[in-house]
Design a protein that fits this description.
The longest helix has 18 residues. Among the domains are: 191 residues, 2-Layer Sandwich (Heat Shock Protein 90); 123 residues, Ribosomal Protein S5, domain 2. By secondary structure, the protein is α+β, with helices and mostly antiparallel strands. Helix 1 crosses helix 4, helix 9 runs parallel beside helix 10 and helix 13 packs across helix 17. The strands form five sheets. An eight-stranded mixed sheet has the order 5-4-3-6-2-1-7-8, with helices on one face. The protein has 19 helices and 23 strands. The structure holds adenosine-5'-diphosphate (ADP) and magnesium ion (MG).
Length: 641
């Protein structure tokens, strides 16, 4: 029978070190956290060979008493908590009392410190976990910790270290996170004695962000503020025109601590839904302030992950703050210099007659039948008297008379129970687009005069070009129309206003077993979309009712697509996601295509309708619908400046 033994402290420490100290960047993180906790106003980090040779952090904080130096490097020794209850009210970055002990176990560590009010400092060396004795030394108030030859006594670990450049990348990331969290602290970073960052203290977070990520990105950031009595959200998010291929540019700070949190990252993606292309991630710098009792930071040794008492509340506060921000922003994509090119060579798809007719009927149906859509007499401003629409089923899209404007909607309040933004129509709504603000004001003050139509020109049968206050606006006709239809349809579905047509002959659809089960499970949801399905025996489902608005989509094909979607993900898609995806699909199919020739009235209608949708700047897939080429840009290019 194997004998059970108590492990000696150095083995325990090595195991603990394995959890916390993975690479030089972990040393950087722990030492910088200690320096921040010490109340320092200046922190200097020096790294040699990516930290494999040396990591040194010098601070001007409170310092350590000579009598306590040995304790500082002992395991489970900390000045930051006293009792078990304290774990749930941690206000410092550290509290586990393990970092220095762990680092000392796998390196050659030297710590020099002078406590405030003391005349001299003291020095302690620890080699491979063995303390060499405290000696007096001359030094400034504060603490300097030097870590040399990391993993020199754990060859397995040392073998895992990567190239200097890679390790330095990780170390710099640790530095970035800490320096972003405390912009009022002066930070310095040197690598191999070369100065990399010198960050003087600042009151402007944007300024600190700019030092790391460039003034251009920083200038384009949108400030975010929100929260309720307990949760406070603040910081910045990037305009959807700026995004990344991964989520590493999402800096979330909880009570001053950098954290990674899947649920909050999800809230971010959710806020950008439809604004970014698939596979792109938003950029964000966000701070959450939450009462310390409401968060558990003792989830993981590196304290990167936390547990919220009310995760749902944090999620919705963040989402609401972001949504509110987006609805009050002009997110029109600006053309970056050099990006102007009219070179989309693929031939425009010419739509068959029948499909065009279906499209017309559909558009008309969506327009006249929508709960939130009303006809508006020409000349009435956004607040003008609107008369309810009389449905005109089957009337083809008036090719000669322009589309009339639905009432603009107001800013979207925080999430309702179903997770959708509220959509009740009320006038006022979004700020008018810059390029016809004048027209709108003029129209509001002269209700009886016809609204001057924006002059727009269709080019290449796919883009609409118009003059604006700012310069020239280029609209992607398909993308914009798709967005308009998407919003109108969404409103119908939310209002429970989707008409179902009973099929004369119900249509059987054979599916895979899992798909059939998923479709039948989702029956109630499908019914909201106007799709009625029943079990037909085996793995076949029977479609008995189908929405009028999907007339141009084959029922069996639609159900097959939905089934694939239902079983595709790891978990069942949320009701909202499913509805949303379906709406995307429908509006894409129903919208005017690139290549469709439009009459001047249709061009004008589309350009006008642009102002009634919540996000006219991006199609539901996240592609921009509108580009603005500013006058300054034109002047610059024609060398008029
Ligand atoms: P923790 O930070 O979790 O308390 P550490 O092992 O990182 O554990 O540090 C142990 C103790 O050493 C800290 O609680 C603190 O009292 C002291 N200490 C470490 N670094 C510094 C520093 N830079 N300035 C002042 N005190 C420090
Ligand atoms: Mg610490």
């Amino acid at each position: 029978m194997p004998e059970i033994r108590q492990l000696p402290p150095n083995v325990v420490n090595k195991i603990a070190a394995g959890e916390v100290i993975e690479r030089p960047a972990s040393v950087v993180k722990e030492l910088l956290e200690n320096a921040v906790d010490s109340g320092a106003t200046r922190i200097e980090l020096s790294v040699e060979q990516g930290g494999t040779q040396l990591v040194r952090v010098a601070d001007n904080g409170c310092g350590i008493d000579p009598a306590q130096l040995t304790l500082a490097v002992a395991s489970h020794a900390t000045s930051k908590i006293c009792s078990a209850e304290d774990i749930f009210s941690v206000r410092t970055l550290g509290f586990r009392g393990e970092a220095l002990a762990s680092i000392a176990e796998v390196s050659q560590l030297r710590i020099r410190s002078r406590a405030a009010g003391r005349r001299a400092g003291a020095e302690l060396e620890v080699v491979g976990g063995v303390a060499q004795g405290v000696a007096p030394c001359g030094c400034d108030v504060g603490t300097t910790v030097e870590v040399r030859n990391l993993f020199y006594n754990t060859p397995v670990r040392r073998k895992f270290l990567r190239a200097t450049q890679t390790e330095m990348g990780h170390a710099t990331e640790s530095f970035t996170r800490l320096a972003l969290a405390s912009e009022q602290v002066h930070f310095v970073l040197r690598h191999n004695e070369r100065l990399i960052y010198e960050l003087p203290p600042t009151d402007s977070w944007r300024e600190r962000i700019a030092t790391f990520f460039g003034p251009e990105l920083a200038a384009s950031l949108l400030a975010v503020a929100g929260g309720d009595g307990t949760i406070k959200v603040s910081g910045f998010v990037a305009d959807p025109g700026q995004s990344r291929a991964n989520n590493r540019m999402q800096y979330l700070f909880l009570n001053g601590r950098y954290i990674r949190d899947r649920s909050l990252q999800h809230a971010l993606s959710e806020a950008y839904r439809g604004l970014l292309l698939t596979g792109r991630y938003p950029i964000a710098f966000l701070r959450l302030e939450i009462p310390v009792e409401a968060v558990d930071v003792n989830v993981h040794p590196t304290k990167l992950e936390v547990r919220f008492q009310d995760g749902g509340g944090v999620y919705s506060q963040l989402l609401a703050a972001l949504r509110t921000r987006f609805l009050t922003s002009d997110l029109t994509a600006r053309v970056p210099a050099g990006a102007l090119a009219w070179s989309e060579p693929e031939a425009a798809a010419v739509e068959p007659e029948r499909a065009a007719e279906v499209r017309r009927q559909f558009v008309d149906w969506a327009r006249t039948g929508s709960a939130g859509v009303t006809d508006r007499p020409a000349g009435a401003g956004p607040a003008g008297a609107a008369t309810p629409t009389t449905p005109r089923p089957g009337t083809p899209l008036p090719r000669q008379t322009p589309l009339e404007l639905p009432i603009p909607r107001g800013p979207v309040p925080p999430l309702g129970s179903a997770g959708w933004p509220g959509t009740s129509p009320h006038p006022g709504g979004l700020p008018p687009a810059p390029w016809d603000a004048d027209e709108q004001h003029a129209a509001a003050s002269r209700p009886s005069t016809p609204v001057p139509r924006p002059h727009a020109l269709q080019v290449h049968n796919r883009y609409l070009v118009a003059e604006s206050e700012e310069g020239v606006v280029v609209i992607d006709q398909h993308a914009l129309h798709e967005r308009i239809l998407y919003e109108q349809l969404r409103e119908k579905v939310l209002a429970g206003d989707v008409e179902t047509q009973r099929l004369l002959v119900p249509e059987p659809v054979p599916l895979a077993p899992a798909e059939a089960a998923a479709v039948l499970d989702a029956r109630a949801l499908l019914a909201e979309l106007g799709i009625e399905v029943d079990a037909f025996g085996g793995d076949t489902v029977l479609i008995s009712g189908y929405p009028a608005m999907l007339a141009n989509l084959d029922p069996a094909e639609t159900v097959r697509q939905l089934a694939a979607q239902l079983v595709g993900g790891e978990k069942l898609p949320a009701r909202r996601d499913l509805l949303d995806d379906l709406l995307h699909m429908i509006s894409c199919k129903a919208a005017i295509k690139a290549g469709d020739r439009l009459s001047p009235e249709e061009v004008a209608s589309l350009v006008e309708l642009r102002h009634v949708v919540q996000d006219a700047h991006h199609c539901p897939h996240g592609r921009p619908t509108t580009l603005v080429l500013t006058r300054e840009e034109l002047d610059r290019r024609f060398k008029r400046t």
